[in-house]
Amino acid sequence: MATPQVTTRILRRLLASGVDTRAERLLARMPPADIAPLFSGLTRDEVATVVDLLFRQRRAARVLRELPSEMLPEIFEAITDERLARVLDRLEIDDLLELVEWIPEERRQTVIDLLPEQSRSELEKADLYPESSAGRVMMTNFVSLDAKMTAEEAIEALRARSDDDESILYLYVVDEMHALRGVVPIRRLVSAPPARMIRDMMIPDPVSVEADTDQEEVAKIVARYDLLAVPVTDVDGRMLGVITVDDVIDVITEEATEDMYHLAGLSEQDRVFTPAHLSIRKRLPWMLVNLGTCFLAAWVVGLFERTLEQVVALAIFMPVVAGMGGNGGTQALTVITRGIALGETEFSSAARAALKELAVGIVIGITTGIVSAGIAYLTVGSPAIGIALFLAMVVTMAVAGLLGAIVPLFLKAIHLDPALGAGVIVTTFTDVFAFFSFLGIATLLLDRMT
Amino acid sequence: MATPQVTTRILRRLLASGVDTRAERLLARMPPADIAPLFSGLTRDEVATVVDLLFRQRRAARVLRELPSEMLPEIFEAITDERLARVLDRLEIDDLLELVEWIPEERRQTVIDLLPEQSRSELEKADLYPESSAGRVMMTNFVSLDAKMTAEEAIEALRARSDDDESILYLYVVDEMHALRGVVPIRRLVSAPPARMIRDMMIPDPVSVEADTDQEEVAKIVARYDLLAVPVTDVDGRMLGVITVDDVIDVITEEATEDMYHLAGLSEQDRVFTPAHLSIRKRLPWMLVNLGTCFLAAWVVGLFERTLEQVVALAIFMPVVAGMGGNGGTQALTVITRGIALGETEFSSAARAALKELAVGIVIGITTGIVSAGIAYLTVGSPAIGIALFLAMVVTMAVAGLLGAIVPLFLKAIHLDPALGAGVIVTTFTDVFAFFSFLGIATLLLDRMT
User: Partners of A182 in the beta sheet?
Assistant: First the structure.
């Protein structure tokens, strides 16, 4: 397979030559997921032409779906309101809802008004569901059956549908109130004797989610029970739609990105291809908060200015305690945050997990503390600095392990994102503890020795 | 739903009462994924009893599959070799292969020898595929068709299979050499007229992977093209097996965990529920490496001992430069590492990505540098310290951004894991640069001023 860069060069040459039919043929041969990366190498005019060519092939919508959402505003700029509305109208409601959110606010209503009445009302309905809820990611074109049908009648019903949608994996059995009663895997339908009643072959009371269930929860359920699709109902159990596993994969991927990003204090909209000025605007507020916490640590060091004046060598070992504490805290934080996301905390209680991280921190603190004290004694020849380094290391690593575990567990307990802000809290406190314990203990020991 | 803790209490009470039938009925009502978490609260004898009860229900294998692999060795201890072999024999080959790897080495061969001949030879074959390759995660019980069959004959072939395997979503069309020729989604088969030829309804030349393709690559392909299953072939295109989307979800989740863990210098086997002594053994070597890098930073500080003796206030601001640099480096590293994992680097070139992080680092360095210099000047009243802090901040943040981008991109270019070791390299170098630039510039300025 040619790299996107090479294909982009070929595509640009074809576009420049003015013979669009050759560019069109190139695009026709490529799957949507392979076309999407080409956009980032094109000028605005070229994007407009490519969207036109794809529109003729009725594939523009499918290619837009494959773009990272963060790139959409730039691409939308190259498309007129009318064309954009016609492209968006070809999408499933869940994709439509997501793409609409990325249209710049000043154009959004204009584009929505250009959509056909039916899409518009579907969009309005979907928009009522809470953010990142199941209702916003479900498809509404599922196949529903009556329990009193035979297998043959069900197959007929399926045949009557005009679309050849390969994503139909389960058929949903509903009663006269549209309440979900059971599910028939399509594979069962194929093997069933024609006269078999749906009632007798369905799986009764299947796993389902409600429309306002959080998407992360839905993803967990699908992964946990190895489902390929999960039905979505309203509070009264009436069938509303289906979430398929490909959307669940997207949710799982996004949630992992979110956790990694939050641990580093990043916003999800700050990606590899985000223009520098936008990344700066996203990162700067957090960096200023971080600057504040750094000055807090500096202030702690300042408390011991007189000790440092007497023994400058202490300044040399400050980075050791702080560096080790930061690392220990990050490790505990990563294990616990990821454990919460994966449901591993089900296999251990919060208290047990926190105590374990404390124990690990103490043992690692003792080991690395002994090594550090040895090095300090051999290099500067002061037993007091060695002892202070050892004790500070044990205290700091213990605090780092405990905080790394407790902070995300506490954030989760009060229903906040366990990763968000946890990084800055943990590293700030370990830094403060590192400097306070090391310089504090050194001050006490040096006073006693002199 | 009751929490695992509550259910464990109930289960233990039922087991203690000696009336196993009631415990058995409780377990029978629960899905395997909900039974698994109970194990961590049980004693060894209780685990043995529960495995026996599950074995009677023919569900022990399915429950073991749901346990985090890291918990398996402990559970296996409670099961005799004979029982374990009989339980494992009920698993699909991909699950069997994984579980066998977690049997303690001294028992493994004994248990394998107790497996029936067929499972043993399948296991030996699967074991030949490279680690984390497609061959190790594929199922081998797929349905293959002849292109010359009719839809009706294909349905008959499917009906003839004794298993009611819901995971069959596609049927695979092979030629007389067993080479993969096409794929028929089961939904198409259902709607097709009975006399329609398989040849005329199959999707020709479907996406497939080879048995030694890396699982991460397989997961990317499945996610990219929204597949539900992907066929696995040998180098000559002969059909060997199928990887289904539920296994792909596991791979995606594991890869994300691996990246997060590697960034923090953790081993994948170090989980929330891992006993403390094992976690310590896993983390200690890395922490000793990290200690070495901390002493490298300390050595850099030591180079400026004489400057520090003259101006102790410099020690106070050291944590500010190092803390900010560490954070900036981690942010760039997280964006690039995650971008590599998600294929976002397709949407930007490596050089563009690195230059962007450099630019972001410089701008944030200038902004936070001005603030820091102001605070330093206002608190200690030295313009030299303020200027040194400002310049060091710009240099350090620039280096942090650039290294955060270049290190993972370089590791990827030489086909190493972009996350592994990147964290320690980036934070070490930013620390070293932070101290060297801050104390070095301060030395120059102070010399000039006095």
Answer: A173, A204
CA-wise closest residue to A216 among A343, A345, A404: A343
Minimum Cα–Cα distance from A286: chain B residue = B327
Query: Which chain B residues contact residue A427 at CB under 8 A?
Result: 323
pLDDT of A225 reads: 87
Q: Name the nearest CA neighbour of B358 among B324, B404, B392.
A: B404
User: Taking Cα atoms as reference points, which of A154, A203, A152 lies closest to residue A180?
Assistant: A203
Query: Mutation test of the interface with chain B: which of A65, A242, A272, A304, choosing the one with the most B Cβ atoms within 10 A?
Result: A272
| DSSP at A348 | S
Tokens of B256: 């994300």
Q: Which residues of chain B have pLDDT under 50?
A: 1
Distance from CA of B131 to the nearest CA of A (A): 23
A312 closest CB neighbour out of B168, B187, B305? B305
- As beta bridge partners, residue A229 has A244
**Domains of chain A, start order:** 4-128 (1.25.60.10), 144-263 (3.10.580.10), 276-449 (1.10.357.20)
Tokens of A80: 């007129």
Distance CA A128, CA B59 (A): 42
Buried b (16+ CB within 10 A) or exposed e, B371-410: bbbebbbebbebebbbbbbbbbbbbbbbbbbbbbbbbbbb
Are B363 and A276 within 8 A, CB to CB? yes
Q: Three-state SS for A194?
A: coil
Long-range CB pairs of B155-161 (<8 Å, 24+ gap) are: B155/A190, B155/A191, B155/B189, B155/B194, B158/A187, B158/A190, B158/A191, B158/B189, B159/A190, B159/A191, B161/A191
Q: Which of B272, B301, B346 has its CB closest to that of A319?
A: B301
Q: Across the interface, do A367 and B312 touch by the CB < 8 Å criterion? A: no
Cβ-Cβ contacts under 8 Å, B356 against chain A: 275-276, 279
Chain A residues whose CB is inside 8 A of the B280 CB are 360, 363-364
Query: Where do we find the tokens 């500070």?
Result: A392
Structure tokens at A291: 């600057």
CA-nearest of B170, B286, B322, B293 to B239 is B170
Q: From CA B392, how far away is CA B438, in angstroms rounded?
A: 5
| Cβ–Cβ below 8 Å for A272 and B331 | no
Q: What is the mean pLDDT of each run of 10 residues along chain A (450 residues)?
A: 75 83 85 85 86 85 84 86 90 86 90 91 88 89 91 86 71 94 89 90 93 93 89 95 90 91 90 90 93 94 94 94 94 94 81 94 97 94 92 97 95 88 88 96 83
Beta-strand relationship, B180-185 and B170-174: antiparallel
Angle at A410 between CA A409 and CA A414, to 5 degrees: 115
CB A54 within 8 A of CB A27: yes
